[in-house]
Amino acid sequence: MPDPIPDPQRDARPTLEAVAARAGVSRATASRVVNGGAGVRQPLVEQVRKAVDELGYIPNHAARTLVTRRNGAVAVIIDEPEFRIFSDPFFSRQIRGISRELTAHDAQLVLLLVEGSGDFDRVTRYLAGGHVDGVLAFSLHTDDELPAIIRRFRVPTVYGGRPEHPAPGAEAVPPVPYVDCDNRGGAREAVRHLVSLGRRRIAHIAGPRDQTSALDRIDGYRDVLPDGDPALIVDGDFTAEGGARAMAQLLAARPDVDAVFVSNDLMASGALRVIREQGLRVPEDVALVGFDDMESVAEKTDPPLTTVRQDVEGMGRLMVRLLMGRLNGDTGEWPASVITPTELIRRASA
């Protein structure tokens, strides 16, 4: 059967002029409605939207950008290897919160992963191209190039997690808005709980020390145990495998340990496995507390994990709200940064 003869009038995309004619309004009025402008009476807004639906009109993104000076897109930049992004439920929870809030603001999420120093050039080119209205960046490290890149292009940004303070003598940088949980307070609550159980040799498996969340949790541990044995603090990497290695190292050096506060749930799951492999019981011999309350981890360990809950998805939503406040010029309605509370969730491991 031969192809149908093209009909230019039938196949042409509906224009803004056609929408205006169908709605019985001027082109300028139709444009303001389509591009989210103000100053149009509600009956006319409804007429234009009805015409858009009837004609199947799709706004020209380039033209809309010229009118609004907005791309309708936000970059989410995560400075972690791909395997961590897709294996750690923390990231999926935070991205879900960000995505849902961006959708509510009719904005598109653009995910940029930074796996190595070579990726900074790609991110630099992308930001220099003006493709996004703002940036949400999290899981930063102390040697990160991202803050300097973002400052260079003056892209409105909100950070997930408290940014590292500059070292003494380093160039001062203006404060940046961020959303974080009360890492130090949550750690204090976890360790106080272990002390209340009568545990006396309480160890800590820390996260990477080039991230402020890990440093704050170490400080919270030391707030409760200021005279603790330094050998009871061992470093992990926020993965289950890293938690297992750290726990094995800890038990080899201090087999008398009777409790462990672990800097996240994934490491706690690895630590729990090693404790049981060595013939010890949880919590009878070694009590264990994690951090994050990732249900897919904490509720499925055996025994279920006592942990410090932070509202990861809610923090993602807050990051978007702070950014949109900056983009819309209503920053007076929002604090510069937000610290969200934590809560100890007691289960069977401690």
Structure description:
The strands form two sheets. Strands 2-1-3-4-5-11 form a six-stranded parallel sheet, covered by helices on one side. Strand 6, helix 11 (212-224) and strand 7 (233-235) form a beta-alpha-beta unit. Residues 4-11 have low confidence and may be disordered. It has 15 helices and twelve strands. The chain has helices at 8-11, 16-23, 27-34, 42-55, 61-68, 82-87, 89-104, 119-128, 146-153, 183-196, 212-224, 240-253, 265-277, 295-298, 312-327, and strands at residues 73-78, 108-113, 134-138, 157-160, 178-181, 202-206, 233-235, 259-262, 287-292, 306-309, 338-340, 343-345. The protein is an alpha/beta fold and 350 residues long. Helix 12 (240-253) packs across helix 13 (265-277).
Q: Helix/strand/pairing class, anyone?
A: alpha/beta
Assign an overall shape.
elongated
In the sheet with the most strands, the strands line up as 2-1-3-4-5-11
Low-confidence stretches: 4-11
Termini gap: 74 Å
The proportion of strand residues reads 15-25%
Order of helices and strands: HHHHHEHHEHEHEEHEHEHEHEHEHEE
Mean pLDDT: 87
* H/I helix tally: 15
What is the radius of gyration? 26 Å
Number of strands: 12
The largest pleated sheet is described as: 6 strands, parallel
The helix content, as a percent range, equals 40-55%
Keywords, separated by commas or semicolons:
350 residues, alpha/beta, 6-stranded parallel β-sheet, 6-stranded mixed β-sheet, 12 strands
